[in-house]
Amino acid sequence: MTAVSVGVDVGGTKILAVLLDDLGRVLAEARHATPPGEDAPGVVVADAVAVALGDLAEVAGSGFADLPVGIGVPGMLSRDGTLVFAPNLQSASGADLATVMTERLGRRVELTNDADAAAVAEHRLGAARGIDEFVMVTLGTGIGGGVISEGRLVRGAHGFAGEIGHLVIDTSGPRCPCGKRGCWERYASGAGVARLAREAATAGRLRALVEQLGDAEAVRGEDVTHAAAAGDREALAVLEEVGWWLALGLSNLAAVLDPACFVLGGGLAEASAQLLPSTRRHLTGLLEAGELRPVIPVVAAELGYQAGAIGAGLLAASS
Ligand SMILES: [Zn+2]
Fold this sequence. Notes:
Number of domains: 2
Radius of gyration: 20 Å
Shape: globular
Largest sheet: 5 strands, mixed
Structural class: alpha/beta
Oligomer: single chain
Number of helices: 11
CATH architecture of the largest domain: 2-Layer Sandwich
Distance between the termini: 22 Å
Helix content: 25-40%
Bound molecules: zinc ion
Protein backbone atom coordinates (compact mmCIF):
# COMPACT_ATOMS: atom_id res chain seq x y z
CA MET A 1 0.00 0.00 0.00
CA THR A 2 1.17 3.48 -0.76
CA ALA A 3 0.09 6.22 1.59
CA VAL A 4 0.15 9.76 0.21
CA SER A 5 -1.26 11.82 3.08
CA VAL A 6 -2.58 11.85 6.63
CA GLY A 7 -5.86 13.42 7.71
CA VAL A 8 -6.88 14.20 11.28
CA ASP A 9 -10.30 15.24 12.56
CA VAL A 10 -10.18 16.83 16.01
CA GLY A 11 -13.60 16.75 17.61
CA GLY A 12 -14.87 17.81 21.00
CA THR A 13 -14.82 14.22 22.26
CA LYS A 14 -12.56 12.24 19.93
CA ILE A 15 -9.60 12.56 17.59
CA LEU A 16 -9.61 10.45 14.43
CA ALA A 17 -6.52 10.12 12.23
CA VAL A 18 -6.50 8.33 8.88
CA LEU A 19 -3.85 7.29 6.39
CA LEU A 20 -4.95 7.87 2.78
CA ASP A 21 -3.83 6.47 -0.56
CA ASP A 22 -3.77 8.46 -3.81
CA LEU A 23 -7.49 7.80 -4.40
CA GLY A 24 -8.46 9.03 -0.94
CA ARG A 25 -9.11 5.52 0.36
CA VAL A 26 -8.53 4.93 4.07
CA LEU A 27 -5.61 2.53 4.60
CA ALA A 28 -5.61 2.73 8.39
CA GLU A 29 -7.15 4.75 11.18
CA ALA A 30 -6.36 5.64 14.79
CA ARG A 31 -8.80 6.97 17.37
CA HIS A 32 -8.22 8.63 20.70
CA ALA A 33 -10.39 10.53 23.16
CA THR A 34 -9.91 14.30 23.10
CA PRO A 35 -8.33 15.08 26.46
CA PRO A 36 -9.59 17.97 28.56
CA GLY A 37 -6.86 20.43 29.39
CA GLU A 38 -6.11 23.70 31.06
CA ASP A 39 -2.54 24.18 29.86
CA ALA A 40 -1.67 26.75 27.24
CA PRO A 41 -4.38 26.62 24.52
CA GLY A 42 -3.91 23.82 22.00
CA VAL A 43 -1.14 21.96 23.82
CA VAL A 44 -3.12 18.92 25.02
CA VAL A 45 -4.80 18.63 21.63
CA ALA A 46 -1.42 18.72 19.87
CA ASP A 47 -0.16 16.03 22.28
CA ALA A 48 -3.14 13.81 21.49
CA VAL A 49 -2.72 14.32 17.73
CA ALA A 50 0.94 13.34 18.12
CA VAL A 51 -0.12 10.06 19.79
CA ALA A 52 -2.62 9.30 16.99
CA LEU A 53 0.05 10.01 14.34
CA GLY A 54 2.41 7.70 16.24
CA ASP A 55 -0.15 4.89 15.85
CA LEU A 56 -0.35 5.47 12.10
CA ALA A 57 3.44 5.69 11.77
CA GLU A 58 3.69 2.11 13.00
CA VAL A 59 1.34 0.96 10.23
CA ALA A 60 2.83 3.14 7.48
CA GLY A 61 6.46 2.38 8.18
CA SER A 62 9.26 4.32 6.50
CA GLY A 63 8.33 7.47 4.66
CA PHE A 64 5.62 8.44 7.14
CA ALA A 65 7.56 11.47 8.34
CA ASP A 66 7.45 12.95 4.83
CA LEU A 67 3.68 12.63 4.29
CA PRO A 68 1.64 15.85 4.26
CA VAL A 69 -0.68 16.14 7.29
CA GLY A 70 -4.04 17.89 7.30
CA ILE A 71 -5.93 18.64 10.49
CA GLY A 72 -9.60 19.63 10.77
CA VAL A 73 -10.73 21.50 13.89
CA PRO A 74 -14.12 22.78 15.02
CA GLY A 75 -14.75 26.51 15.30
CA MET A 76 -13.51 29.72 13.75
CA LEU A 77 -10.09 29.08 12.26
CA SER A 78 -8.37 32.11 10.76
CA ARG A 79 -6.50 31.92 7.50
CA ASP A 80 -3.18 32.12 9.38
CA GLY A 81 -4.03 29.10 11.54
CA THR A 82 -5.31 30.67 14.76
CA LEU A 83 -8.34 28.97 16.28
CA VAL A 84 -9.96 32.26 17.17
CA PHE A 85 -13.10 30.82 18.82
CA ALA A 86 -14.00 27.19 19.47
CA PRO A 87 -16.80 26.73 22.04
CA ASN A 88 -16.83 22.97 21.34
CA LEU A 89 -13.04 22.62 21.80
CA GLN A 90 -12.39 24.85 24.79
CA SER A 91 -8.86 23.57 25.41
CA ALA A 92 -7.70 24.89 22.03
CA SER A 93 -9.86 28.01 21.75
CA GLY A 94 -7.63 31.00 21.13
CA ALA A 95 -4.60 28.88 20.24
CA ASP A 96 -2.11 29.76 17.53
CA LEU A 97 -2.62 26.21 16.30
CA ALA A 98 -0.35 26.47 13.27
CA THR A 99 2.60 27.18 15.56
CA VAL A 100 1.61 24.82 18.39
CA MET A 101 1.03 21.88 16.02
CA THR A 102 4.17 22.50 13.96
CA GLU A 103 6.32 22.65 17.09
CA ARG A 104 4.77 19.57 18.70
CA LEU A 105 4.61 17.41 15.55
CA GLY A 106 7.88 18.59 14.03
CA ARG A 107 6.28 19.04 10.63
CA ARG A 108 4.18 21.55 8.77
CA VAL A 109 0.44 20.89 8.90
CA GLU A 110 -2.49 22.07 6.78
CA LEU A 111 -5.22 23.29 9.12
CA THR A 112 -8.87 23.61 8.15
CA ASN A 113 -12.30 23.86 9.71
CA ASP A 114 -13.71 20.35 10.29
CA ALA A 115 -16.97 20.85 8.39
CA ASP A 116 -15.05 22.47 5.51
CA ALA A 117 -12.94 19.31 5.41
CA ALA A 118 -16.07 17.13 5.36
CA ALA A 119 -17.42 19.20 2.45
CA VAL A 120 -14.22 18.65 0.47
CA ALA A 121 -14.39 14.90 1.12
CA GLU A 122 -18.06 14.57 0.12
CA HIS A 123 -17.35 16.66 -3.00
CA ARG A 124 -14.41 14.54 -4.09
CA LEU A 125 -15.54 11.08 -3.01
CA GLY A 126 -19.02 11.11 -1.49
CA ALA A 127 -22.60 12.31 -1.91
CA ALA A 128 -21.69 15.48 -3.85
CA ARG A 129 -19.42 13.97 -6.51
CA GLY A 130 -19.84 16.06 -9.66
CA ILE A 131 -21.85 18.76 -7.85
CA ASP A 132 -20.01 22.07 -7.74
CA GLU A 133 -22.58 24.13 -5.81
CA PHE A 134 -23.64 22.64 -2.48
CA VAL A 135 -23.66 23.12 1.27
CA MET A 136 -22.38 20.47 3.65
CA VAL A 137 -24.27 20.54 6.95
CA THR A 138 -22.81 18.46 9.79
CA LEU A 139 -25.26 17.70 12.57
CA GLY A 140 -23.38 16.76 15.71
CA THR A 141 -23.55 18.36 19.14
CA GLY A 142 -23.77 21.60 17.18
CA ILE A 143 -24.08 22.35 13.45
CA GLY A 144 -21.05 22.81 11.21
CA GLY A 145 -21.09 24.00 7.63
CA GLY A 146 -18.93 23.86 4.55
CA VAL A 147 -19.81 25.74 1.37
CA ILE A 148 -18.59 24.60 -2.04
CA SER A 149 -19.14 27.07 -4.88
CA GLU A 150 -17.82 26.75 -8.44
CA GLY A 151 -16.20 23.54 -7.21
CA ARG A 152 -14.10 25.28 -4.57
CA LEU A 153 -14.31 25.65 -0.84
CA VAL A 154 -15.58 29.10 0.18
CA ARG A 155 -13.43 30.28 3.07
CA GLY A 156 -14.43 33.94 3.29
CA ALA A 157 -12.26 37.00 3.88
CA HIS A 158 -10.93 35.76 7.24
CA GLY A 159 -11.47 32.01 6.95
CA PHE A 160 -14.72 32.05 8.92
CA ALA A 161 -17.27 31.31 6.15
CA GLY A 162 -19.71 28.49 6.84
CA GLU A 163 -20.30 29.06 10.57
CA ILE A 164 -23.92 28.24 9.83
CA GLY A 165 -24.78 26.76 13.23
CA HIS A 166 -24.79 30.29 14.60
CA LEU A 167 -27.29 31.77 12.20
CA VAL A 168 -29.75 33.36 14.62
CA ILE A 169 -33.28 32.17 13.94
CA ASP A 170 -34.96 33.38 17.15
CA THR A 171 -33.52 36.35 19.03
CA SER A 172 -35.50 35.41 22.15
CA GLY A 173 -34.48 31.73 21.90
CA PRO A 174 -32.28 29.71 24.24
CA ARG A 175 -28.73 30.78 25.03
CA CYS A 176 -26.01 29.23 22.84
CA PRO A 177 -22.45 28.36 23.99
CA CYS A 178 -21.29 31.07 21.56
CA GLY A 179 -22.95 33.68 23.79
CA LYS A 180 -25.85 34.60 21.50
CA ARG A 181 -29.50 33.56 21.72
CA GLY A 182 -31.53 31.41 19.37
CA CYS A 183 -28.75 30.07 17.14
CA TRP A 184 -29.85 27.46 14.58
CA GLU A 185 -27.85 24.73 16.30
CA ARG A 186 -29.95 25.11 19.46
CA TYR A 187 -32.86 23.67 17.41
CA ALA A 188 -31.57 21.30 14.79
CA SER A 189 -28.44 19.56 16.19
CA GLY A 190 -28.08 16.65 18.62
CA ALA A 191 -28.28 19.16 21.46
CA GLY A 192 -31.32 20.71 19.77
CA VAL A 193 -33.14 17.37 19.63
CA ALA A 194 -32.48 16.87 23.35
CA ARG A 195 -33.72 20.36 24.18
CA LEU A 196 -36.91 20.08 22.11
CA ALA A 197 -37.48 16.62 23.59
CA ARG A 198 -37.19 17.94 27.15
CA GLU A 199 -39.65 20.70 26.28
CA ALA A 200 -42.07 18.11 24.87
CA ALA A 201 -41.63 15.91 27.94
CA THR A 202 -42.21 18.80 30.34
CA ALA A 203 -45.40 19.62 28.41
CA GLY A 204 -46.67 16.08 29.04
CA ARG A 205 -45.67 14.50 25.72
CA LEU A 206 -43.10 11.71 25.17
CA ARG A 207 -44.86 9.80 27.94
CA ALA A 208 -43.45 6.35 27.15
CA LEU A 209 -39.89 7.66 27.07
CA VAL A 210 -40.20 9.67 30.29
CA GLU A 211 -41.75 6.66 32.02
CA GLN A 212 -38.83 4.54 30.88
CA LEU A 213 -36.18 7.08 31.96
CA GLY A 214 -37.99 8.18 35.10
CA ASP A 215 -37.42 11.91 34.57
CA ALA A 216 -38.28 14.41 31.81
CA GLU A 217 -34.94 16.16 32.40
CA ALA A 218 -33.05 12.94 31.63
CA VAL A 219 -34.20 12.72 27.99
CA ARG A 220 -31.24 12.88 25.57
CA GLY A 221 -31.20 13.29 21.81
CA GLU A 222 -30.29 9.67 21.16
CA ASP A 223 -33.18 8.49 23.37
CA VAL A 224 -35.51 10.29 20.98
CA THR A 225 -33.93 8.95 17.78
CA HIS A 226 -33.99 5.39 19.19
CA ALA A 227 -37.64 5.70 20.26
CA ALA A 228 -38.58 7.18 16.87
CA ALA A 229 -36.83 4.32 15.08
CA ALA A 230 -38.93 1.93 17.18
CA GLY A 231 -42.10 3.70 16.03
CA ASP A 232 -42.89 5.87 19.09
CA ARG A 233 -45.33 8.41 17.62
CA GLU A 234 -44.47 11.18 20.09
CA ALA A 235 -40.74 10.77 19.43
CA LEU A 236 -41.48 10.92 15.70
CA ALA A 237 -43.38 14.17 16.33
CA VAL A 238 -40.29 15.67 17.98
CA LEU A 239 -38.15 14.73 14.97
CA GLU A 240 -40.80 16.19 12.70
CA GLU A 241 -40.39 19.45 14.60
CA VAL A 242 -36.58 19.22 14.37
CA GLY A 243 -36.99 18.64 10.61
CA TRP A 244 -38.94 21.90 10.37
CA TRP A 245 -36.20 23.85 12.18
CA LEU A 246 -33.60 22.19 10.01
CA ALA A 247 -35.53 23.14 6.87
CA LEU A 248 -35.88 26.72 8.14
CA GLY A 249 -32.11 27.13 8.34
CA LEU A 250 -31.62 25.45 4.96
CA SER A 251 -34.14 27.84 3.40
CA ASN A 252 -32.13 30.79 4.73
CA LEU A 253 -28.94 29.32 3.30
CA ALA A 254 -30.69 28.78 -0.04
CA ALA A 255 -31.63 32.47 -0.10
CA VAL A 256 -27.94 33.39 0.01
CA LEU A 257 -26.31 30.57 -1.94
CA ASP A 258 -28.87 28.91 -4.26
CA PRO A 259 -27.17 25.51 -3.93
CA ALA A 260 -27.80 22.48 -6.16
CA CYS A 261 -28.18 20.34 -3.03
CA PHE A 262 -27.65 20.08 0.71
CA VAL A 263 -25.58 17.21 2.08
CA LEU A 264 -26.42 16.27 5.66
CA GLY A 265 -23.78 14.47 7.72
CA GLY A 266 -22.72 14.08 11.33
CA GLY A 267 -23.95 11.81 14.07
CA LEU A 268 -27.53 13.03 14.18
CA ALA A 269 -28.05 12.58 10.43
CA GLU A 270 -26.65 9.05 10.65
CA ALA A 271 -28.73 8.16 13.69
CA SER A 272 -32.05 9.36 12.39
CA ALA A 273 -33.58 7.97 9.22
CA GLN A 274 -36.68 10.05 10.00
CA LEU A 275 -34.94 13.41 9.87
CA LEU A 276 -34.26 13.70 6.14
CA PRO A 277 -37.84 12.98 5.00
CA SER A 278 -39.33 15.53 7.40
CA THR A 279 -36.72 18.12 6.40
CA ARG A 280 -37.44 17.58 2.70
CA ARG A 281 -41.18 17.85 3.31
CA HIS A 282 -40.85 21.21 5.05
CA LEU A 283 -38.17 22.75 2.83
CA THR A 284 -40.28 23.42 -0.25
CA GLY A 285 -42.83 25.34 1.82
CA LEU A 286 -40.14 27.45 3.50
CA LEU A 287 -38.15 28.35 0.38
CA GLU A 288 -38.85 31.59 -1.42
CA ALA A 289 -41.00 30.62 -4.43
CA GLY A 290 -40.61 27.00 -3.35
CA GLU A 291 -43.27 25.80 -5.80
CA LEU A 292 -41.72 27.67 -8.74
CA ARG A 293 -38.04 26.87 -8.42
CA PRO A 294 -36.24 23.54 -8.92
CA VAL A 295 -36.34 21.24 -5.91
CA ILE A 296 -33.16 21.43 -3.82
CA PRO A 297 -32.39 17.82 -2.88
CA VAL A 298 -31.45 17.12 0.74
CA VAL A 299 -29.22 14.04 0.70
CA ALA A 300 -27.35 12.00 3.28
CA ALA A 301 -23.56 12.21 3.42
CA GLU A 302 -21.78 9.04 2.32
CA LEU A 303 -18.45 9.06 4.12
CA GLY A 304 -19.80 8.80 7.68
CA TYR A 305 -17.62 9.54 10.68
CA GLN A 306 -14.45 9.58 8.53
CA ALA A 307 -15.52 12.48 6.28
CA GLY A 308 -13.69 15.23 8.17
CA ALA A 309 -10.45 13.28 8.50
CA ILE A 310 -10.52 12.22 4.84
CA GLY A 311 -11.14 15.82 3.72
CA ALA A 312 -8.29 17.12 5.87
CA GLY A 313 -5.99 14.55 4.28
CA LEU A 314 -7.16 15.42 0.75
CA LEU A 315 -6.53 19.13 1.41
CA ALA A 316 -3.04 18.39 2.71
CA ALA A 317 -2.26 16.23 -0.32
CA SER A 318 -3.30 19.00 -2.73
CA SER A 319 -1.68 21.93 -0.92
ZN1 LIG B 1 -24.37 30.27 18.68
